[in-house]
Prior knowledge:
Blueprint: E1 2-3, H1 21-27, E2 34-35, E3 54-57, H2 59-67, H3 87-90, E4 94-95, E5 98-99, E6 101-108, E7 110-114, H4 125-128, E8 133-136, H5 142-151, H6 164-172, E9 180-183, H7 187-194, E10 200-203, H8 205-213, E11 218-220, E12 226-235, H9 242-252, H10 255-265, E13 268-269, H11 280-286, E14 297-299, H12 306-317
Parallel strand pairs: 1-2, 8-9, 8-10, 12-14
Antiparallel strand pairs: 3-12, 4-5, 6-12, 6-13, 7-10, 7-11
Helix pairs in contact: 5-6, 6-12
Amino acid sequence: MLALNGYVEWGGTDPKVSWVGEFEKTTGCKVSLKSYDPSRDDGAGVPAPSSFDVISAPPEVAGRLIAERKAAPLNTALLPGYGEIPKRLRESSAEDGRVYGVPYLWGLNEVLYDSSEVEPDGADAIFEDEGPVMFRDSPLSLADAALVLRDRGARIKDPFKLTPDQLDAAAELFDKPDKRVFWSDPIDVVKGFATGSVRLAQATPYHRDVLSRGDRPVRAVGDRPVTGWVDSWLVSAQAAHPSCAYRWLTWTSSADVQRQASAWTGFAPANPSACTGRARRVCVDYRVGEPGAFKGVYFAVRPADYDQWIARWSQVAG
């Protein structure tokens, strides 16, 4: 399997954090794990379907695998826990009436500020502030700029579906390169606020909670709308071990495994039943199970012209 860092744990980092060993013991399937970096998806970095049985994929990778028919459509009748996942999340990996992925973890972006200072007027303050400010280092951050453009009157219905002119305008909001810091490791956000080296940051509710518990109180600017993402498990169109692949998808959609994964990563579990024990606090951060949990959240999909998004972002953050 191919997985994002932290999404598959076998006890190597922490002996108490493992959901692979029990899977192997229970099913008889053997796991060969390799981590990969989705930020290297530059048009040539998508794994070959013959190189994996299952892959944990963020939307930009999942979209490409589906479009290029490198991911197999799933028979959800063979996945007992699939129906426990909210429909809004299940829709993220469906296309043309077919399901290609099982949602695993999800998150959303919000603008954080030090609550000891005056609250900014709105989320667009991160583009107006003289800085330094932090942004997630991802082409999909252009969608957050698109929401700001919409608030300013631009006719944008979906921040992940932009015209060339709208994409250019979104990129132009990042026009103060000497005052912009781009992060890929979540710990950088914590360090930035802890040391006072940043004033505002595009981050997650879990960042906010961690900083608040660390006596560095931060708050989110405003509320919704925001962008978000769903990371899902997909099966290769050339899976050599489809039976074990389906068993893994069933295993990772269970409340027990998602509880462990959520607590370990700080992202929300797709299965609301996982919101007990160590994952309870994460679920509170993301409002999991609440009626308005997904209200005002635009979940990412890979834009049809994603190569252009990559090109614009390389100019912004390069």
